[in-house]
Write a sequence for this structure.
């Protein structure tokens, strides 16, 4: 099992924006040095806590400061931007990274983003499907393209001038295009079936109970079968909120108990947003679970893995017993309320926890 990194990110509202961006960059640079295999960052336009406004632009700032880690958009919100721009920019990004690029995509779910962009009430899922089809057709096709849809029509027929290079849109470095991943955020997701059909790769979100994460693989494998391609658990990424420290009680305090815990702040933010959107069922063990029993403390107890090295190893293995095998564990980055504690947790994950997890998996397989 590989270790990767995924951050939305979520910072306290009173934290200096410049410092937030520096911290987010430092976390991925550290992940690269520690051997994390890939790193994703999210994007929102109108969220002061989730303050990266363009995932691809942010990752571009890390190209020269990383050497081995693959940099992914987590995600590019396809309803927000013309697909020609996304196709051209992602292709350039792939060349700049010489193949270290992963293209993460989603419709874009934040209502305030949609309002600001004038697309609130528009079917963003339909926009998403059309956009990715256009992008793939651009990457695999040739000018003048002649692509039509309900939201965008794309051609360079009237203006192409091949002799001087006018008309084509850049193709990616990776052939036929970079790996395409999508985040799966619902139990029994039907969307992940479509991902399997198309050959896209799934990331199971870190805010789902283990029993709901387990439902993703069967649907993804079904989609792969329907698409005529093999399903490989190595392709499945699963994100988890994890904090590990040399001292067990320090880990419990920082990961759950303390009022200033960045994990507590993260889930309070997420719980409040999902409650407002009527999507808080993702935190529940069953649909009839009462709302008044769903609290931040309950969510922390269910979704945060924290403790000393041995405890975290045991919790990850117990989680995997429920979900089944997967290829990459994505460490969900949080605000560095205490920078040294945040960095130490990432170090211990790479140097102590994952070697022990993989040794245990190997022994079990033998």
């Amino acid at each position: 099992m590989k270790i990767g990194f995924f951050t939305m990110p979520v910072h306290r509202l009173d934290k200096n924006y410049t410092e937030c961006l520096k911290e987010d960059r430092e976390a991925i640079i550290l992940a690269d040095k520690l051997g994390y295999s890939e790193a994703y960052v999210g994007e929102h336009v109108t969220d002061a806590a989730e303050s990266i406004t363009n995932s691809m632009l942010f990752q571009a700032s890390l190209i020269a400061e990383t050497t081995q880690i693959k940099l992914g958009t987590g995600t590019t919100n396809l309803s927000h931007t013309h697909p020609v721009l996304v196709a051209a920019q992602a292709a350039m990004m792939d060349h700049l990274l010489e193949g270290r690029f992963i293209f993460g995509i989603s419709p874009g779910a934040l209502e305030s983003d949609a309002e600001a962009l004038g697309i609130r009430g528009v079917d963003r899922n339909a926009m998403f499907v059309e956009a990715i089809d256009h992008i793939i057709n651009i990457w695999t096709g040739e000018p003048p393209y002649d692509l039509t849809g309900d939201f965008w029509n794309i051609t360079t027929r009237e203006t192409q001038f091949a002799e001087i290079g006018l008309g084509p849109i850049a193709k990616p470095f990776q052939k036929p295009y970079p790996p395409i991943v999508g985040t799966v955020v619902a139990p029994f997701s039907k969307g992940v079936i479509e991902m399997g059909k198309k050959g896209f790769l799934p990331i199971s979100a870190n805010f789902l109970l283990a029993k709901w994460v387990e439902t993703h693989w069967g649907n993804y494998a079904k989609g792969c079968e329907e698409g005529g391609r093999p399903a490989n658990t190595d392709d499945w990424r699963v994100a988890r909120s994890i904090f590990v420290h040399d001292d067990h009680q320090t880990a419990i305090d920082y990961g759950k108990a303390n009022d200033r815990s960045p994990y507590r702040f993260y889930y309070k933010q997420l719980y409040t947003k999902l409650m407002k959107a009527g999507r808080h069922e993702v935190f529940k063990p069953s649909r009839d679970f009462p709302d008044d029993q769903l609290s931040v403390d309950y969510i922390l107890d269910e979704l945060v893995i924290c403790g000393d090295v041995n405890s975290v190893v045991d919790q990850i293995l117990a989680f995997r017993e429920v979900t089944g095998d997967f290829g990459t564990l994505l460490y969900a980055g949080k605000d560095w309320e205490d920078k040294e504690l945040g960095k130490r947790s990432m170090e211990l994950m790479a140097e102590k926890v994952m070697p022990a997890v993989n040794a245990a998996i190997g022994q079990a397989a033998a």
